[in-house]
Amino acid sequence: MTPFYALPPTLSGLIRLWSVAVMMCHLYDSIRYRQLGKKGAVRWFSLSMVVLNVAFFYLLQQQNHPEFLFWFVIPTAWTVVFLGLSTLIGAVAQFRISGWHRNHISAMSVHEVFDGLPAGLCYYRPDGLPILVNEKMRQIGLQLYGTSLINGETLWHDIRTGRFSDGMLFDNAPILRTHDGRVYSFCLNELPFQGTRIYEMIASDITEEYDMTLTLEEKLKQAHIVNMRLKALMDCIEYVTMSRELLQIKAALHDSIGRSLLLARKYLSAPDQTDRRELLQLWQSNIRWLKNQEPETWQQPYYVIFMQADKLSIEIEIIGELPRETHLIPLIDTALSVHITNVLRHAGGTRATVSVGEEAGAYVLTFQNNGNPPRTAIRETGGLANLRQKTEAAGGQMNIKAEPAFEMVLRLPKENPYVL
Questions:
Q1: Same domain membership, residue 305 and residue 400
Q2: Cα–Cα–Cα angle for 388, 391, 396, nearest 5°?
Q3: Residue partners of 286: CB distance under 8 A and separation at least 6
Q4: What pLDDT digit, counting tens, does each position of 357-372 carry?
Q5: pLDDT at residue 101, as a whole number
Q6: What's the pLDDT score for residue 371?
Q7: 190 torsion bin: left (phi>0), alpha (psi -120 to 50), beta (else)
Q8: Buried b vs exposed e over 130-162: b needs ≥16 C-beta within 10 Å?
Q9: What are the pLDDT digits (tens) for 253-277?
Q10: For labelling, which of 60, 99, 207, 325 has a CA lying 20 to 30 Å from the CA of 42?
Q11: Which residues contact 73 (CB under 8 A, 6 or more apart)?
């Protein structure tokens, strides 16, 4: 029977490594039995196996010393048998521990589940000292303070009072966006615990719901603008209809006057062949209509644009009196339309102000609003570019500034430069 000390160094080293692994396995089993609350023979047997394997490893180490070999020599077969049995016992213990975990809930299991929750949880005492904090809440505290969460009451106070720039309140519930872009909704509950009170703070991840809400609000805003424009368009259709009816009336009047002239010419050339009563009635009717032809309200200058602004919930405030010159009305009407559109779409305002002044044969119109100032430099595209083209074609000037608030100034000549 070959003694252990006579084995080659490589083989003896592998057996010692095996002994260390078996010893650590029994040590782990003993610790797990203690954590699981095992008592009695099972726990003591596990502890005994630890002591026995430590002692056996010590004996194997002593086989390298010649003075130890005079009184005790360990055969290799005994070593293999002992380590084999010890390994089998350790494997059985591991199997029993795993089986117990599958059928029981331990404190470790609760802690693992607690850390795996998608919501952040923090239980703390009235003085703010945390009792239990899961992994998600630790990450939130790390992002907000740069350190682990050490005071739950301080965190709740800072969130409620708006210390963090990305915080807000919604239905009295604080909402906070962290540095990683996630959005959390916080709530606080007071709970009884062992004859005293503790606080439970919950941080729910509402990133997707929050982003969807912002998207929905933007779409609702766009839908509201489209709806108001449709209403304004309906008014324009009404105005076009009335204009068409007026045109038909004017055409009928034109025909009536032409008929009167023809009948008058016939009367001058052949009085006996003309009905004087019909001629008189026709002229009286035409003259009466011409004398009473006062413009309707909807025919007044700027009527349509004021109706559009009202339908778009934009208040137009005119300081002074808008020009009534025929060559300026279409241009100013365009300017009002562009200004209302910019107030509604870009500034988010509710009131458009137009101040009208005069200087050296020109009107000076200043357009302002109560909305948000432009965030970037103003690019003259679309309506603004078209308005500038019309203004310069009429011999006027157009100036725009964005700071400290939006302001557009038009200088329009009173006289039509194209009339000789």
A1: yes
A2: 125
A3: 253, 256, 257, 260
A4: 988 889 999 999 988 8
A5: 64
A6: 84
A7: beta
A8: beebbebbbbbbeebeeeebebbbebbebbeee
A9: 677 777 777 777 776 777 777 677 7
A10: 60
A11: 3, 4, 5, 63
Residue with tokens 């009717």: 285
| Residue 419 lies inside a defined structural domain of this protein | no
Q: Which two tokens stand for residue 32?
A: 């797990």
Q: Cα separation of 208 and 214, whole Å?
A: 10
- Omega of the bond prior to 126 within 30 degrees of 0, cis? no
| Domain that residue 20 falls in | 4-104
CA 230 to chain CA centroid, nearest Å: 28
Q: Tell me the CATH number at 401.
A: 3.30.565.10
Q: Tell which of 82, 104, 126 closes a domain.
A: 104
Q: Is the pLDDT of residue 70 over 70?
A: no
For residue 318, list its beta bridge partners: 354
Of 235 and 74, which is predicted with more confidence? 74
Is residue 345 domain-shared with residue 386, that is, in the same domain? Answer: yes
Q: Is residue 69 scored above 60 in pLDDT?
A: no
Phi/psi of residue 196, nearest 5 degrees: -135, -170
The CA angle 392-394-395, to the nearest 5 degrees, is 65
Residue 420 has pLDDT above 60, yes or no: no
C-alpha torsion sign, points 73, 77, 80, 85: negative
Distance between alpha carbon 25 and the CA centroid of its chain, in Å? Answer: 53
